[in-house]
Amino acid sequence: MAKRDDDVYKQIKVPISDTDDVKGLDRKFWNRTERKEWAAGLFSGCGVLYACRTVTPLVIAAMAKEFGWDKTQSGSVLSCFFWGYTMTQFLGGYLADKVGGDVVLPIAACFWSMITFWTPQLAYLSTDKYLTLHILVISRVFLGIFQGFHYPSMSSMVSRKVSAQERSLTYSFICSGSHLGTLLCGSIGSLLLDKYGWQSVFYFAGLSSVVWMLLLRYLLIEKHRKKYVPLVSVGEGISPKITNKGEKSVPWLTLLVKPAFWSLLVGHFCENNAFYILLSWLPTFFHENFPDAKGWVFNVVPWVVTMFSSVLGGWIADRMLAKGYSVTFVRKFMESIALCGTSAALVTISYTTSYYSALFIMAIAVACCGFHNSGILVNPQDIAPRHAGAVFGIMNMAGAIPGFVGVYMAGHILEATKSWAAVFNQTAGVCLFGWIVYIMFGTGKQLV
């Protein structure tokens, strides 16, 4: 730790402890109470983020019926979100590393919340089928652009404010909020869809997000800003804010020649390919194969299980680290469960014929994805702790590509072959490829 100026810290009058090779106030770890408050706030944020993201997959069948879309057009609407999502991953991480995730998060949330809320109004701006399709595609692109800031900013905050020994569980718990959001959207959204129409689901998700954004901004962020703003007398020649100006830029050239960095991108790409295909097409799969099944069941059960598997994975990872297992082994072990488990479940689903067996296997497939949160998803904080936001942004940009390529191709394959088995088998193969690459080249050691 850099040498501190005792006079400066006496005037600041804030607790300075639990630092980890850091400079200044911005790198102080959250204490136990703060960690719980921020974890709860960010957990809720991931929930409303995914609620807004999964509204369209939930109601796509109803929208397609009303507007006369085929599978390829439905796939375009679903996948175009990720066109925008890839654009802001690096920018989100870079800005969070420079100015703080607490600054970036509420601004971005304001925009994606309002886009979600006004989507039904955008859908009726024109009576022309193709113009309506284009308007919704553009709105989904902008939704992705603003949501792209969220996870890199959050990763930057956790890397700076949570110690390595507590990071897996904290990060996994926060990320499990995404499954809660999908769960709430699937349950409440399904009820709203059946009773009030698809438009009501957008209004519910958008309004919930606005409420979360305001609570985050005025309760959590303001509270901690007031607590940690340095109390320095004017005119003493001391800056009123301690910053990270001395921090070096991200050494990209060093990272780009490391196979471990590329294995991170490949593994995240392959796992996200499976997750986004399941996220986007799961409701349609059950609607087509089991038309009498209740939407609130198959839109809820997989995400209930996954929420617990995500937290369980984080707890296991932290326990293994506490018992002396290397970070590299722990990350590869968690990722093996994620990628191999998902792959096996997707292959098995092709041989099922009953509704309950399909629901059970799909729950396993999605639940295995939850272990990814304590594997590759937290790995940028291991290999580049000082630049976690920017590195996570690059990784998530690669991970967002299958969001539009994989989801669109799934729709195209379905339109051409009418076979769900073809979609699931090729997705399973991609998972196995990502697992092999990460097992061979991945690491938990700090690279930069």
Description:
The protein has 448 residues and is mostly helical. The protein folds into two domains: 31-226, Growth Hormone, Chain: A; 251-447, MFS general substrate transporter like domains (Growth Hormone, Chain: A, Up-down Bundle). Helix content is 76%, strand content 0%. It has 19 helices and no strands. The chain has helices at 6-12, 32-67, 71-79, 81-85, 89-99, 101-123, 129-147, 150-161, 164-196, 198-228, 252-256, 259-289, 295-298, 301-322, 327-349, 355-369, 380-383, 388-417, 420-441. The longest helix is centred in the first third of the chain and has 36 residues, at 32-67.
Based on the model shown, name its key terms:
single chain; 448 residues; mainly alpha; Growth Hormone, Chain: A; 2 domains; 19 helices; 76% helix; globular
Topology (elements, then pairings):
Elements: H1 6-12, H2 32-67, H3 71-79, H4 81-85, H5 89-99, H6 101-123, H7 129-147, H8 150-161, H9 164-196, H10 198-228, H11 252-256, H12 259-289, H13 295-298, H14 301-322, H15 327-349, H16 355-369, H17 380-383, H18 388-417, H19 420-441
Helix pairs in contact: 2-3, 2-9, 2-10, 2-12, 3-7, 3-18, 5-6, 5-8, 5-18, 6-7, 6-8, 6-10, 8-18, 9-10, 9-14, 12-18, 12-19, 14-15, 14-16, 15-16, 15-19
GO molecular function: symporter activity
Keywords: Membrane, Symport, Transmembrane, Transmembrane helix, Transport
Protein name: Solute carrier family 17 member 9
